[in-house]
Amino acid sequence: MPTPQKRNVIQQLSLTYRAMMLAFDAQVGHPLPRWRILLALAERGTCSQKFLAEHCRLDPASLTRQLQSMEALGWLTRATDPDDNRLTNVTLTQAGMAVYDEATPRRQAFFDETLEGMTPAEIATLESALTHLEAQFKSVASRAKAGASSDAGGDVTPSRKRPPRSQP
To answer: What pTM was estimated for this model as a whole?
Structure first.
């Protein structure tokens, strides 16, 4: 059984993540998943939806919903890959690039404002702790998944599978 301190830290991490998501949306003007898509396309150019799902840590259905709304706004286009018709490629339009350019300074201001008052050493310690936690979470998930598939006698079909959540 976890100690109250360990349980409280994980609960606080969850609350902090939710507060960060709300603050990011309010400051930058875009929800974090949408921003991740804009950023990936602005930095990398045309990307497949498969790549975007993996890179932005979004389940494919969530990504598709985001892309549909962004396409309706005229921020991107989607087209079948000419070399592999199983893939759909996504490209920012000029309007999408303008949205990215307009929001980028607000994103930097968000980083500056939220970390205000922390020393570089404190920021480095926090980054180290968060990197450690991310690795631990991935390890726990991997072990749980491996245990579930071996418990099922090799049948890897889970009874209920949740899609991965977007990460900040």
So the answer is: 0.78
